[in-house]
Amino acid sequence: MTATLPSQKRRIFDSPIQKNKTTPQRKRIPKWVDVDDEDERIGQRKRQNGSLKHAPQAHSTPPRKKARTSGPPPPSPAKAGIQEHRKQLPIAKGKDALVQEIRANDVTVLLGETGSGKTTQIPQYLLEAGFADAGMIGITQPRKVAATELAARVSVEQGTPLGGLIGYGIRFDEKSSAATRVKYMTDGMLTRELLGDPLLSKYAVIIVDEAHERTLRTDLLLANLKRILRERNGKGEGKPQVNGKGKEREKDRNPLKVVIMSATLDAEKFSQFFSNAKIIYVKGRQHPVKIFHAAQGQTDYVDAALRTFFQVHVDQPPGDVLIFLPGQEDIESLEKSIQMFARQLPPGHDEVLTVPMYAALSGAQLHRTFAPTPRKTRKCILATNIAETSITIPGVRYVIDTGKVKEKRYLAGSTGGGFDTLLTRDINKSNAMQRAGRAGREGPGFCYRLYTEDAFLGMAASTEPEILRCSLAQAMLQLLCIGQDIQDLDLMDMPDVDAISSALRTLFLLGALDSQRELTDLGRAMAALPLEPTHARAVLASKDLNCTAEVLDIVSVLSANGALFLDATDKRAEIAEARRKFIHRSGDHLTILNTVRAYRAAGGADGENASGHVNGHGDGEEEKEEKVGRSARKEWARAHFINERTLREASSIRDQLRLSCTRAGIDWRASCGEQEDPVLLSLAHGLAQNTALIAPDGSYKQVMGQSVVKIHPSSSMADKKVPAIIYDELVYTNHIYARGVSSISKSYFNSLGAFNRREA
Ligand SMILES: Nc1ncnc2c1ncn2[C@@H]1O[C@H](COP(=O)(O)OP(=O)(O)OP(=O)(O)O)[C@@H](O)[C@H]1O
User: Fold this and answer.
1) What residue stretches are annotated with the Helicase ATP-binding domain (predicted)?
2) The whole model's pTM is what?
């Protein structure tokens, strides 16, 4: 059935779009094909094929209401009463049956449609049923923002302050206490906990959410959970323990319950992995989502998203819009266009508030997404796939899906020396369904897909597991610390031997492994720092070179999410002039150091942490001074086009790294003052593989690899020719670019590999 959007008849947006030279009127407004909710159809097909084993009667779909196309959005959960809202979720009907199944099985695979209530409710059901008496309930998420937002939501539902009964843990940020019984965390945090507690003994239940995303961390976690189940629960994980005797044994053994939660695909694979664990299907979602596909494929997805957004804005009732785009550049370009056209709207239309959402933004910036939308305003969230799973963005009623995503992929060089890069690709069915699912959270929703139904049907079912396409160095280092060799692990998918060899080579060059592939003391020390192996190696090298204070300043900024330097195309000259004084001739790393120092000096004493951790002891005078310092630093950052949030985030990361250094016996106060060599040399120890020498044609050739790289235009080294460079990362666009570049003397860089190995 083909339907056209109501607004297509009134092409009032052709005129402002025509005026825009950057988006000429070359494309037609997408036509939409109206289909049923295919999540539902896929679920049905699977059930008919018998691939879904178990569907408790209690979980019948509530009668579907016809999608509302007009009128005010339904009352917010806050108004309707949060407990009432919980009871109305589809999952609530099967609460008792679910708790019973989880009690009866070591492993349960739970399959549910988006919005059925899995992520927020299952942990609460288990809490309320007493599962947390024997240990904590841990729920893993692939993404930080989901972990923090879910913990916040569930603590509201429980009526307790965040960090009390309900907490969260993500890298460099923890909100939990002795009272915490339910903890949301990233899968990376839980795999890190294996270092100190290989049996995860403080947990009674581990819930692996969004398992279908198959992140590297999730896969490692699943392999470890299988081992832990064997050790904590005895043989035969996945088998029921039904009688009273079983319960006795449970108590003695401190058994673990594992719940794997996934979208509507791939359940069989998880079940088989856990010895045919029971699959429970949670049927139904709270609100229907009407899906429209483009009648023709769109070549310019940013332009198509722009037109679709304004069609929605002009023709459709209130409700916020969530647009999925592959990356930051597209987000920024679309944001500018939307703002420009919104200003040209005739009077009478609601304001448009754009909010970007991508991983490089800080927590506080991301939080803006969840803030209530002002009256007479339509919020337009422009997001990467970080908004794709688990989260509910209150107010979102419309989703526009470009069908694109950026995916990390390891590009191996022909003779080694590969690198992780982000490539834009088409999404798969699972992504498409999750994206649509973001629209039906608080009421009926609408999803506009900028690709055809045929394109949807031809999509791969799910993503290729990350373990098959990413660098394995950090993961393998952590595994080695708990005595595990990746090749001996019982993984759902085994990575390629070349990828394993490449990671071993990196770890060997960093000095984390010796020539027998045994973990060295240096490797163990690297794993103890909550940093990438390269940065951890730099911090450890700084100990001998007496410059830990400087290296921590730099590494903290590199570990922060946001960009340090803000950019504005129309102010390039002004920006360059403002920053000239802290650009360091040796490159980007010392430029970062200069920036951190200038920021600190702008506020007076060394107390830049917004929380006042460093020197705020709360007496009146100090507090006043700190307040003055904060506003001076803010003003300084604004005047120099520096992202102050990044510096504040870096400051809190540095506080945590100082603690880790103290634990590791490293004096974090050790400073080399104005000397630059010790700092660069420390960094070079970590970046030993990221080195390149100048070639006669002025390009740079990797030392440990064959790639010819260019210096990224954003680097302070972009126009310079120096004999040798180190760099933080390579990015691949039309060329291979090195980003985060510093010049380094050939004399000490030549011996780096040997140096790391000698120390090890
Ligand atoms: N932060 C929030 N604000 C308002 N409502 C929320 C919030 N978080 C969850 N909800 C409500 O709870 C419902 C269930 O959310 P939950 O995350 O548990 O679903 P789910 O089944 O895990 O779906 P998904 O896998 O898509 O995340 C949402 O549809 C929404 O109505």
Assistant:
1) 99-283
2) 0.76
H helices of 169-287, in order, are 187-196, 216-233, 244-253, 267-273
Residue 300 pLDDT > 70: yes
CA-CA distance, 646 to 559, in Å (whole number)? 10
Amino acid making up residue 327: G
Q: Under a CB-based contact definition with an 8 Å cutoff, are residues 754 and 741 in contact? A: no
Q: How far is 211 from 261, CA to CA, in rounded Å?
A: 6
89 lines ligand 1 (CB under 6 A): yes
Residue 56 CB coordination number (10 Å): 17
Question: Which residues, listed in sequence order, are joined to residue 175 by a DSSP beta bridge?
Answer: 168
Phi, psi of 397, deg, nearest 5: -120, -20
Backbone angles phi, psi at 225, to 5 degrees: -65, -35
Answer whether residue 569 shows pLDDT above 90.
no
Distance 439 CA to ligand 1 centre (A): 11
At residue 385, what is the residue type? N
CB contact set of 25 (below 8 Å; sequence gap of 6+): 14, 17, 18
Residue 251 confidence (pLDDT) above 50 = no
Rounded mean pLDDT of 590-609? 79
Kindly state the average pLDDT of the residues 408-426.
67
Helix (H, G, I), strand (E, B) or coil at 706: coil
Cα-to-centroid distance, 394 and ligand 1 (Å): 9
350 pLDDT band, cuts 50/70/90, is very high
Are 225 and 155 in contact, with CB atoms under 8 Å apart? Answer: no
Question: What's the rounded mean pLDDT across residues 601-624?
Answer: 51
182, 165 in Cβ contact below 8 A? yes
- Mean of per-residue pLDDT scores for the chain: 81
286 close to ligand 1 (CB < 6 Angstrom): yes
Is residue 442 in contact with ligand 1, taking CB distance under 6 Å?
Answer: yes
